[in-house]
Amino acid sequence: MTSVPTLKLNDGNEIPVLSYGFGTANFGGKDEDIIKAATLAINNGYYHLDSAECYQNESGVGAGIKAAGVDRSTLYVTTKVVGTIDQDVAAALDTSLSKLGLDYVDLYLVHVPFSAGSPGGLQKIWTQMEAVQAAGKTRSIGVSNFEVEDFEIIFKTAKVAPAINQIEFHPYSQQREVVDYCRKKGIAVSAYSPLAALTVARPGPTDEAYVELAGKYGVSEGDIALRWCLDQDIIAITTSKSEERLRGYMTNTLGFKLEPQEIERLSTLGSQKDYRGIGIGKSCLAIDVIVTSSNEVD
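Predicted structure:
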């Protein structure tokens, strides 16, 4: 089975660059379906599992992990706290750990900067994140859907820098200001909806390039889309329920690299169109329902 490369985070921990996500197509699924998806992913080498409390499926993910029977040290498990101003982060993580059947997670994220508009709100949430890391309940802490101004708020009081920012990232949503800021600060970037340009945002200016590059490398267009992320040192999250597709990503995507000019070509073409499948709303649930329609179609 192909071994997934890792990326070193600013806290010294390493994260697998290809992840299986339980948002989007797996959002709010029945436990039996989530168990099936989790075991399918793990059995095909996807040991980096990405969940969240508001995906409403952590129990199924946990049952899937147990059913797969792999050693805990083999897995890299991410989950997220919603991040509202009045949230007890430690209690939320304890609940997530119970559902997942784990003693710790590898990465814990603030899902959305909901409390940024409240004086000290986001700083309070981040202080609690630092505390759960210090308590050993998560090895790394980070954020999701953060923009530059959100980082500036937490950096005023933070003792620990976020290890990662998980954002919507594909050629039509490159968020270069955020990505450049993260790189300057040593914060890794993780991409959800990396295949949006091939699915819900089609037709578009990258269509012909995807076809040409897939033909050149003898892979699928999805492989090209994921590779475009990986070759920029951006972690890619897939949610496919197709075993054939998952196997293809594990073998084909990891078996080649795009040339610098090909990465730039997709970036330049992508900049001609704006598409965001997510808008920061008033509830995490609303956000993920939006995201559900903006990722992979199986």
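Summary: The longest strand covers residues 138-144.
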